[in-house]
Amino acid sequence: MNEFFIVESEEGERIDRYLSETVEGKSRTYLQKLIKDEYVKVNGKPVKPNYRLILGDQVEMVFPDVKEPDIVPENIPLDILYEDADIIIVNKPKQMVVHPAPGHYTGTLVNALMYHCGSELSGINGTMRPGIVHRIDMDTTGSLVVCKNDTAHQCLSAQLKEHNIHRIYEAVVHGNLKEEKGTINMPVGRHPTERKKMSTHAKHARPAVTHYQVLQRFGDYTYVRCQLETGRTHQIRVHMAYIGHPILGDTVYGQKKCPFPGLIGQTLHARTLGIIHPRSGEYLEVEAPLPEYFVKLLNKL
């Protein structure tokens, strides 16, 4: 167990920031998780990451015994849209999980990146998520940026936090939208009873904004473009379902049975990704071409 006593110069500081500056080799994100999981106590009681320290506080911290599995590099082909010494932007295929997790320790994007990049991946998110700044769902395709060093990672994380990354998705949704374009401004958070789902009725929902525009109408279905102003988990899927137009193939937020045999998962593609390059400071934008299944579906419709 690690034990600290707060002195006058440390009074008023957030506990997560204090620990990140005091404990070597641990990221602030990791320490925030320890605090939330109650491995950190102040005067014998758990606190929140934003707790402000008081003179004389006794801070106790223990590290959980966690044995993470070895993540093995795998020679999995990557569709690379852009690459340099700092970042790599890939076009993620359907049915590929971004990073290892229980039940998915092989065949992930991280396994493929470790083979392609070797040790050139940022370590801020730990050994299970090297280089990963943001994610897209297993059945969502398209552009995803990965960082090769911690400086690039910190820069892009800040852009994400400030909503400065330009992200446009394309999707096919159920129904015929009344308007040509619109904005959905509804908070998104963890579903109150189904923990694997997100909801607009969550108790601790966070602000979420999606702008949409109709690209083509097919009667019972509509081809749309969605631009994220925020980037909450499942945001577009939840928002389109909220307005009564769930994404085609999304059996979580839409119809339990897909009307098109052979279609796996939601018809959602991360088409455009624009960032400020972490080294040059210049705007960089890439486009991921629509996957073959998406093109075939549009032709069928």
Describe the structure.
It is built from 6 helices and 15 strands. The chain has 301 residues and is α+β, with helices and mostly antiparallel strands. The chain folds into 3 domains: 2-61, RNA-binding S4 domain (Structural Genomics Hypothetical 15.5 Kd Protein In mrcA-pckA Intergenic Region, Chain A, Roll), CATH 3.10.290.10; 67-162, Pseudouridine synthase, CATH 3.30.2350.10; 163-266, Pseudouridine synthase (2-Layer Sandwich). A hairpin with a 2-residue loop joins strand 2 (40-42) and strand 3. 33% of the residues are buried. The mean pLDDT is 93.
Regarding CATH, which class of the largest domain? Alpha Beta
Could you state the CATH homologous superfamily of the largest domain? Pseudouridine synthase
How much of the sequence is in beta strands?
Answer: 25-35%
Distance between the termini: 62 Å
Helix content: 10-25%
Q: Which structural class best describes the helix and strand composition?
A: alpha+beta
CATH architecture of the largest domain: 2-Layer Sandwich
CA radius of gyration is: 21 Å
Give the topology string: H per helix, E per strand. EHHEEEEEHEHEEEEEEHEEH
Number of strands: 15
What is the fold named in CATH at topology level of the largest domain?
A: Pseudouridine synthase
Oligomer kind: single chain
Q: What overall form do the CA principal axes indicate? A: globular
Number of helices: 6
For the record, the count of structural domains works out to 3
Question: Key features?
Answer:
about 300 residues, alpha+beta, Structural Genomics Hypothetical 15.5 Kd Protein In mrcA-pckA Intergenic Region, Chain A, Pseudouridine synthase, 3 domains, nine-stranded mixed β-sheet, four-stranded antiparallel β-sheet, 6 helices, 15 strands
